[in-house]
Amino acid sequence: MKQTGYIKEEMGANTPLCSILLFAFTLLNISHHSSAIAIEANQSVSLFVNASSKAPTKKIPETLFGIFFEEINHAGAGGLWAELVSNRGFEAGGPNTPSNIDPWSIIGDESSIIVSTDRSSCFHQNKIALQMKVFCDICPAGGVGIYNPGFWGMNIEEGKTYKLVLYVRSLGPINVSVSLTGSKQTLATADLVAEHVWKWTKMEVILKANGTDANSRLQLTTTKKGVIWFDQVSLMPTDTFKGHGFRNDLFEMLKDLRPGFIRFPGGCFVEGEWLRNAFRWKETIRPWEQRPGHFGDVWHYWTDDGLGHFEFFQLAEDLGAVPVWVFNNGISHTDQVDTSVILPFVQEIMDGIEFARGDPHSKWGSIRAAMGHPEPFDLRYVAVGNEDCGKKNYLGNYLKFHSAIKQAYPDIKIISNCDGSSRPLDHPADLYDYHIYSSANNVFSSAGKFDRASRNGPKAFVSEYAVTGKDAGTGSLLAALAEAGFCIGLEKNCDAVEMASYAPLFVNVNDRMWNPDAIVFDSSKLYGTPSYWMQHFFRESNGATLLASSIQPNPSNSLIASAIIWKTTENDKMYLRIKVVNFGSSSVDIQISIAGIDSNLLKSIGSTKTELTSSNLMDENSFQVPNKVVPVKSVLANVGEDMNITVSPHSFTLLDLLVNSNNIRTVGSSSVDKSSY
Q: What is the helix, strand, coil percentage profile of the chain, to 5?
């Protein structure tokens, strides 16, 4: 994410020219948020596409468009990771007592119950446990105890089952009622009864809900006087994706993007404000009860690290995406490790690579195998740090990591934090990382950023791009259109750009640390922003063939287009896809001429037009109107090598022309569900 002093366009800046244009647009009663220069009404332009077998083409990398997951906005904890209990081990206050048990709270008053923390846990990595002293001889009918509201409410659904696991001990017998309680009724309940639990005892129960409430909570209560200790209380839905722990609806939103890669576990989350709070992969591969968790001090919340090193690789595999591991290189936002003593950090990363790729009989590969995945994960890319170029020890540290990794794994591509788009890097790298967060006009204008980038040196990894500031709102059409233009520029420069991903991916509306985001959710609902739907237009680009195309004339530079050939896997159909972004405020008539394909090869039946637009540039989706700005598909008539279309103002248009493939070049395949828009 954004850091001062790194490769960034200035956020939200308006140039004097933009101000003049905005003033002029206001006088003309034209939509006020776009600073793109409008094409005059009724102007016609020509779009030339060369599909001839003799014309130059580019093979788009299989990895060009992917996703970037960062633990920000409660994206994982309280989001994609389906654990319903927040602060399950009572560790959020750190290792000292008294600890911070929030959001746990008590049921009852001080005359009947006192709750405190001590260091009596059986898990030495996380020693904090909760002690509950019950004083009442005749307790209230509902009992006294503790409850956990989860992450702003637990979504409990009728007919579904939930697995509760907890550790408990007591000096005497226990009779604890566990329940899932909604705002109006108890949705599920069970009793934990035991005579001898003077030693820590693991207890499990399956709870089946008899009702639905998105704002439920877990309660642990008793009517029996005594002292009970609880630790590591977990509640998980039993229907997570493949049982891998991922919340189904959020996972499907990712799956629908068909990402070529996934970058994880974050940007600033990896660095930490201080190194002591950086993500440490080795702390996240233990059994979940033994993971100490840590405070993400950049985004200011505690994570139990149920979503850890193993789970990220599993997520990549479940998505069919190539994993891109970003690791800490001994540098945080505040402190750094000197290169002279960086070798222990290097060894930790080498162990992490062995965990992912090692033989199941190797030291770290055997741990992966014991976790249920004997086959190696497909780790091909690693990024040395995040946004650290220019910091005192970065280059020295980077070279140590580079040397060790290349010696042991020469096939792994290594990503540098330093920008190589304008001048050659002064160190070896396979890719360089480029981030851009800026106004809509700047992002759209950056479509040509890589036009003159070297084709011989390291390729670009645009791992974080988005429109931010007032143009973005909390996810506007304007932002999506600017990003669409930028992505078409990346597609046209696919020989210089290997990967690109929007950021951030997720936001829980109860912890919106960053605007905008691709997918918005709470405990039960979700929707995609226009920027999320914009990415759907590029789902079939990975592995496709880029054709030469040009727009003439384009006097205001508010149009940008590309053309690809792609092929489905399920029915072997071939399509010529044309994408056009109209960033201007007037509709445009486009005369499309396709060279190299006879009209007889283009099929009207099966050809479609998909458009992303709305009546107002600043329109957004919401929980109330989740589909206000989404792609709309229609049948495309009058298909031919010469055809006319009109693109709406402020729109992103996609044309899929079904092609008889017997007489056209063979291209890579790309799976697609044609009914998914």
A: 20, 35, 50
Asked if 503 contacts 443 with a C-beta cutoff of 8 angstroms, the reply is no
- The residues pairing with 301 across neighbouring beta strands, listed in sequence order, are 296
Q: pLDDT tens across 202-224, in order?
A: 999 999 999 999 999 999 999 99
At 26, list the tokens. 């206001």
Q: Which helix (H) or strand (E) holds 350?
A: helix 343-357
DSSP characters for 434-460?
EEEEE-HHHHHHGGGTTTTS-SSSPEE
Question: Coil, strand, or helix at residue 21?
Answer: helix
Distance of CA 92 to the CA centre of its chain: 24
**HEC string for 526-538:** EEECHHHHHHHCC
pLDDT value for 601: 83
Tokens 């008793």 belong to 222
Helix (H) or strand (E) run with residue 311 in it: helix 309-319
Closest C-alpha among 95, 174, 78 to residue 129: 95
SS3 346: helix
| Residue 134 confidence (pLDDT) | 96
Local structure of 611: helix, strand or coil: strand
Residue 560, sorted as left (phi over 0), alpha (psi -120 to 50) or beta, turns out to be beta
* Structure-token pair, residue 362: 């190797």
Please check whether residue 477 is in contact with residue 619, taking contact to mean a CB–CB distance below 8 angstroms.
Answer: yes
pLDDT (0 to 100) of residue 154:
98
21-61: per-residue pLDDT in tens? 333 333 333 333 333 334 445 689 999 999 998 899 999 99
Q: What is the pLDDT of residue 11?
A: 34
- Per-residue b/e over 586-612, b at no fewer than 16 CB within 10 Å? bbbebebebebbeeebbeeeebbbbbb
Q: What letter represents residue 226's amino acid? A: G
Angle at 472 between CA 384 and CA 279, to 5 degrees: 25
pLDDT value, residue 41: 54
CA-to-CA dists, residue 70 to 320, 464, 589, 665, angstroms: 19, 11, 41, 39
Which 8-state DSSP code applies to residue 9? Answer: P
Q: Are 412 and 405 in contact (CB under 8 A)?
A: yes
Say if CB 303 and CB 70 are below 8 A apart.
no
Q: In this structure, what token pair is assigned to residue 75?
A: 């994206």
Ranges of the chain whose pLDDT falls below 70: 1-42, 555, 661-677
Backbone angles phi, psi at 318, to 5 degrees: -65, -30
C-alpha to C-alpha distance for 318 and 626, rounded to whole angstroms = 26
pTM for this structure?
0.91
* CA proximity to 40, closest of 652, 562, 560, 558: 558
3-state secondary structure of 438: strand
